[in-house]
Amino acid sequence: MKKKLLAALAVVPLAALLAGCSGAAADETVKIGVVGASDPYWAVYEEAAADAGITVDIVDFAEFGQPNPALSAGELDLNQFQHIVYLAEYNVASKDDLTPVGATAIYPLALYSTQYDDVSEIKKGDTVAVPNDASNLARALLVLQSAKLITLSDGGSIYSTLDDIDTQKSKVTVTALEASLTATSLPDVAAAIINNDFVEKAGLKVEDALAQDDPTDPNALPYVNVFAARAEDKDNPTYQKLVEIYQTTKAVQDGVLDVSAGSAVMVQTPVADLESSLATVEKDTKALK
């Protein structure tokens, strides 16, 4: 999946490219919502976009639950913070049709602790914190099951919930918190599953993870992070150009890898594959409602 490349955009004058935009006009700023605008690579990205004649404004959000409603409401032109499973959950819950317009990276989801150096040291009855949004919660539970800390009665899937934990067969108790709080909960719990966005900010190092999933697994497609747009803007050439800039600007890619301490797997998954994965996850999600 990593090796797939997006088809090269046709070489046309930038003025003509921008003239065909269905969203932001050529002389308007493209607002992109992110969680973690202070990451240095976003400034590099803005400069690279400016060199291509596109003005970008990176809009920061503190929580994962904020950028999608802002995009739907027209406060943003794009956002870039979520994987396909999260986007599908949002679309189904909100009856929306936000759509992926480009891939960025897959980030491993990992377990951290300030009390233990090895997952085997975690004691029976200890409490482990996980993100409480449905998509990351399920993924976190799969990590805990792989680490032999819990047993999921349904065997585990991208739809697993706390109710699926077989407490009699599990070693730890699991508590769900807002994603940005799992890192700050470490003094109070044995360990926590922490989203990549918050690892460095919490003073942690990726290499200190006690356990994590495998972002290179072909089955990880639903966890590819994406640029998302409103459905009517999915073919906007300016937005496609911005995806290309992100994917092909070495300084931006290096910056992403630096912030993730090398854990990110950069991808250029074709948009058609992203759309197909989104449709599948949305269908399955609706069937479970």
Automatic annotation (TrEMBL):
Q: Which domain of life is it from?
A: Bacteria
Q: What main location does UniProt list?
A: membrane
**Membrane topology classification:** Lipid-anchor
Similarity annotation: Belongs to the NlpA lipoprotein family.
Give the matching Gene3D superfamilies: Periplasmic binding protein-like II (3.40.190.10)
Q: Where would one find the signal peptide in this protein?
A: 1-24
Give the UniProt subcellular location, in the record's own words.
Membrane
Q: Which Pfam families match?
A: Lipoprotein_9
Q: Which UniProt keywords apply?
A: Lipoprotein, Membrane, Palmitate, Signal
Q: Which InterPro entries match?
A: Lipoprotein_NlpA
What is the protein named? Methionine ABC transporter substrate-binding protein
Task: Please list every transmembrane segment annotated in the UniProt record, as residue ranges.
Answer: none
